[in-house]
């Protein structure tokens, strides 16, 4: 049985400090959508988070915590349960996501085709408010497994 393709998180600010708990919810066989929080706080449409591929995010609690922090307007200034230190993130830290335009350039496809692929679910993505981001790790995983699904049997001449 497949998991829900998209899960809405209503209050990312609450879940920043409970990312491990949310990762367990996302890994469950029945993922609720939307995922609220126990405080009952009214959702802010600007910070609601739409998670695509809940199974992936359930196995990545540290990345999930960072995405939740970004969605809630934070700047990695919390000391999290998943091992994040307090203080600002070093400038040398590599970004975990790409914009759709950056993903299109990396894949060698047009911007329009990339957005169409995101809409169809061919390119893994998350939505933070109105923003669409492509997780680098998930994109790399998709590309590395692409050869395994080639049913044409074409072999390279190298």
Features of the shown structure:
158 residues; alpha+beta; Arc Repressor Mutant, subunit A; 5-stranded antiparallel sheet
Describe the structure.
The protein has 158 residues and is an alpha+beta fold. It has two domains: 85 residues, no CATH class; 53 residues, Arc Repressor Mutant, subunit A (Orthogonal Bundle), CATH 1.10.10. Helices cover 37% and strands 12% of the residues. The protein has seven helices and five strands. A five-stranded antiparallel sheet has the order 1-2-4-5-3. The protein is globular, with a radius of gyration of 17 Å.
Compile the SSE list and pairings.
Elements lengths: L5 E4 L2 H5 L2 H8 L22 E4 L1 H5 L2 H11 L25 E3 H8 L3 H10 L5 E3 L2 E5 H11 L12
Antiparallel strand pairs: 1-2, 2-4, 3-5, 4-5
Helix pairs in contact: 2-4, 5-6
């Amino acid at each position: 049985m497949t998991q829900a393709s998209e899960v809405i998180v209503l209050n990312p600010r609450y879940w920043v400090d409970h990312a491990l708990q949310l990762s367990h919810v996302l890994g469950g066989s029945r993922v609720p959508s939307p995922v609220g929080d126990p405080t009952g706080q009214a959702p802010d449409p600007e910070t609601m988070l739409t998670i695509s591929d809940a199974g992936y995010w359930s196995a990545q609690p540290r990345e999930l915590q960072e995405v939740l922090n970004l969605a809630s307007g934070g700047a990695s200034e919390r000391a999290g349960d998943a091992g994040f230190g307090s203080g600002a993130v070093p400038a040398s830290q590599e970004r975990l996501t790409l914009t759709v335009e950056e993903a299109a350039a990396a894949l060698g496809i047009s911007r329009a085709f990339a957005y169409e692929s995101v809409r169809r679910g061919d390119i893994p993505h998350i939505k933070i408010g109105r923003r669409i981001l492509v997780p680098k790790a998930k994109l790399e995983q998709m590309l590395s497994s692409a050869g395994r699904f080639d049913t044409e049997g074409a072999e390279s001449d190298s």
